[in-house]
């Protein structure tokens, strides 16, 4: 999995007034959960430095530096302003080498599906799947081969398995499917009529 370097400053002042003041300075209030013996660590980062972390479908392990303290973390949640879409707050989760983490990993489809060759349309229903694994076993993406996927067929989470990680998304959730298009229906009807 790719890593992302991020520096922040631990903050002591809390509350709405402090948060507004930080945002006016181009800073984003953040918290990392489980970051120290005391529990959570509150800090701020420059808004410009987290854009490449947030506005991307990719998932990163964040190498977080807070003063003398260095830790690995993952992005847990981002809160946006409902109107301006500015970043209001970011939650991180401290990652420990021996403790599995739960994270959403992007799905990438590979291969030309049989159903597409027959005139169907491939659709990706689940862009990300929730997984649990040790941080060093986390892939950048979950690659799903669709070559054997026929017309009107789908692949569900329960049919997939990846080494070193556990899939937590519902087993009956559809990952991808080949839908019948009008052209494919017409071709199938013509073939059936010709066979009579």
Folded structure, characterized:
The chain is of the alpha+beta class and 196 residues long. 18% of the residues lie in helices and 45% in strands. It contains four helices and 13 strands. It starts with a strand and ends with a helix.
Query: What general outline do the C-alpha atoms trace?
Result: elongated
| Largest beta sheet: strand ordering | 1-3-2-6-5-4
Percent range for β-strand residues: 35-45%
Structural class: alpha+beta
Give, in order, the helices and strands.
Answer: EHEEHEEEEHEEEEEEH
Cα Rg: 22 Å
The share of residues in helices is 10-25%
Q: Mean of the pLDDT scores?
A: 87
Largest sheet: 6 strands, mixed, barrel
Residue stretches low in confidence (pLDDT < 50, at least 5 long) are none
| End-to-end CA span | 55 Å
**Given the structure, what is the number of helices?**
4
Number of strands: 13
Quaternary arrangement of the chains shown? Answer: single chain
Structure described in brief:
The chain is built from four helices and 13 strands. It has 196 residues and is of the alpha+beta class.
């Amino acid at each position: 999995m790719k890593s992302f370097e991020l520096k922040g400053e631990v903050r002591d002042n809390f509350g709405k007034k402090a948060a507004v003041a930080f945002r006016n300075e181009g800073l984003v209030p953040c918290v990392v959960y489980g970051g120290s013996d005391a529990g959570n660590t509150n800090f701020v980062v420059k808004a410009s430095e987290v854009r490449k972390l947030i506005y991307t479908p990719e998932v990163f392990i964040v190498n977080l530096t807070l003063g003398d303290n260095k830790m690995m973390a993952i992005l847990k949640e981002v809160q946006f302003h409902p109107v301006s879409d500015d970043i209001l707050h970011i939650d991180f989760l401290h990652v420990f080498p021996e403790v599995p983490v739960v994270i959403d990993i992007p799905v990438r489809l590979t291969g030309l599906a049989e159903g597409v060759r027959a005139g169907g349309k491939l659709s990706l229903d689940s862009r990300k799947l929730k997984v649990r694994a040790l941080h060093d076993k986390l892939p950048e993406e979950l690659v799903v081969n669709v070559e054997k996927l026929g017309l009107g067929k789908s692949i569900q989470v329960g049919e997939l398995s990846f080494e070193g990680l556990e899939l937590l998304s519902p087993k009956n959730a559809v990952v991808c499917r080949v839908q019948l298009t009008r052209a494919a229906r017409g071709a199938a009807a013509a073939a059936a009529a010709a066979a009579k």
